[in-house]
Amino acid sequence: MNKILPLSVVLSSILLSQPITRIEYKGLMHLSKDVASEISGIHIGDEFDINKIDESLKKFYKQGYFLDIWISATDDGGLIYNFKEKSAISKLDMNGYSSDDEQEALFIEIGLKKGDLYDKKKIESAKKKLIKKIESEGYYDTVVEVTVEPKEDSVALTFDVNKGEKIYIKNIDFEGAKKIDTDELEDALANQEEDTLGWLPGLHNGVAHIDQLEYDAFRAKDVYMKNGYLDAQVDEPLMRVDNGSYLADITYQVKEGEQYRINSVEIDGLVDGLNENDILDDLNLIKGKIFNIEKLRKDISLIKEKVADLGYAYAKVTPNFKQNKQNHTVDVQFLVQPGNKVYINDVIISGNYSTKDRVIRRDIYLAPGDLFSLTDLKDSKSTLGRRGYFEKIDIEQQRVDANRINLLVKVKETATGSIQAGGGYGSYQKFMINASLSDRNIFGSGISSSLSFDLSKVSRNYSFSINNPRVFDSEYSLGMNIYNNSYEYPTYEQDTFGAGANVGKQLTRNLYGYVGYSYSKNDIDANETSTDLVSSVFSNEDLSYTKSTITVGLSYDSTDDYFVPRKGIILGGSMSYSGVGGDEEFIAYSGRFGAYYGVEDIIDYDLIFRYKLRANMLQDEGHISGPEKLFLGGVSSVRGYQPYTIAPSEYGTNEDGETTRTIKGGKKSLVNTVEASIPLSEAARMRLAFFLDYGMIGEDSFDEIRRAGYGVSLEWYSPMGPINLVFARAKNPGELERTSSFEFTMGRKF
């Protein structure tokens, strides 16, 4: 920063005693003269004060816009500020690391973008961030050179990257480790030896992550703390690299100490409304058990949540340990510092360019004036996630004063209107496709509607449905639908015209109940061909019947996302009675269960396990037509088989001595599905799921026929909606059961 030489040398004592007659600001581009005047704090009429002027210089430099500033004074009492602003960055290029279409995002990640002012410290910081990022990918001795090319009023920067070589970990030693298996210690590290099939996603390929090496000692110590070794010490690792082969050996020096058990657990500082004994019963740390640091962390979260649910939003829970080194026990004390009770001042919503504020607010369980509750906050975020309106949801707490906070609800909307399609390929149906137009959030109102039509070879369907999940923002829902479908199955054709309506109520935050009525008219024509060896149980007659049905049901949903849930369960059941008029007389029972469990917090990899179960049972009360019976197969059932091809059947022999099959349909069915979903491309929002379907169906019992299918599905959350490409294989298909190797859907939840 230049000194104010013109003032300190040229100004005379007479000038210093006179007031400032005018002030000029020359060379400003990023600041207006009015703003500059506010920053300087010097005004016309003030007396010349060198200290005050020097202080104004410092204020200008803090703005970060200026490369140089100097001040001069005129004989008539004028004060002139001269500014030389920093050059703007007009171009950013990178060679040797990223592709052109990735560069903009990468530069933003390291803290640079076009239009920023050129600053050497900022460039140096960006270099360090880039090197650290590259080292995290396993590259050793990375070098980054930055070339600065001056332009007319700006500069162009080029980052030349030499990534060096990747280091592969050959061997890891834990010297002094005897009481804990070294495999368990290594599993906790970011740097590990190569796994068998280490090239597969989720497994370790042996590449060293230099940026994580300093933290691995803490990860190893954490393993000891989970097993009760409170005195364990794990020194920083020593990595030796062979510069010829770039293979590395890593050594940890370990002092294990003794294993501790819990002698007592206490909670001090609990607020009124909480009972210590009740909370102690819920804790994971139990007297007499081996100390576990992971259980301690869970207990801290549990206590904090219970305190925060009573309004103490900024409660702190601190653990204290008292070790008895003679008998190797530890007394654990949780010290609660609740702070003040906090109330909601306001709920501020942003990011919703389509969805109306009231649609969001009705799913937020905290309103202005309410006492803060952490459980309510978590439930609000999960409920918003289940709606399927938003790609991202954040609810931040903004402190207003000691007793009030604002909730900042920030959402990023996703496409709720979509063109949905589905299809598949099989030996009978060949290629088929269907489509629909739908919107889960019409005009941001929360009302969903769908208009669908089927263009496949074997089906011609038209339907319209509309549903309001919160009529007049109440707890009640109302929906209706009308449809006209024509299906050509392997053994018969079915034409159906029907309509229905339902009314529901939100019973609790996650529990929903509903009652509905539907009516349909069905016409059946049997397909009789001399070459087809498969027929239906009603293949020798034409059927026409009507069905009038009343349905009641319950559904429970605690998942955290509409399309790709990572936690929570879905549980539902319904009972339908067909016989309120019409030709059909039977009761249908159905149940479903889904459990979702993401393990990213445990293994630092976005792996999601899913288990799904669907069960159905029909109870004959007089008459059940063939098409109303149960069948398995298809993308929503046992994948690898064509729809409606797995069912109880009768087998015989035709005139040519060939085996024939007459499909009868079942009255009881059960399908189990196990899936493991892994990320394929985070940028493209694509995942890969490995699945196993196991289904059972029968007339008198569930397990008369058992079939399984397995395979892999590509899950892509595209701009048009979720697309699921299924590649499946049937396991031991039955005689004359048609299989399907490929199916796809669009618009369905994963």
What can you tell me about this protein's structure?
The chain has 750 residues and is an alpha+beta fold. 17% of the residues lie in helices and 46% in strands. The protein has 13 helices and 37 strands. The strands form eight sheets. The protein has a 16-stranded antiparallel barrel. It starts with a helix and ends with a strand. Mean pLDDT is 85; it is low at 1-15 and 424-430.
Count the helices. How many? 13
- CATH architecture classification of the largest domain: Beta Barrel
CATH class of the largest domain: Mainly Beta
Work out the helicity level: 10-25%
Report the sheet with the most strands, covering strand number, pairing sense and barrel closure. 16 strands, antiparallel, barrel
The order of strands across the largest sheet is 19-20-21-22-23-24-25-27-28-29-30-33-34-35-36-37
Evaluate the radius of gyration. 35 Å
How many β-strand stretches?
37
What would you give as the CATH superfamily of the largest domain?
Answer: membrane protein fhac: a member of the omp85/tpsb transporter family
If you consult CATH, what is the topology of the largest domain?
Porin
Number of domains: 6
Shape: globular
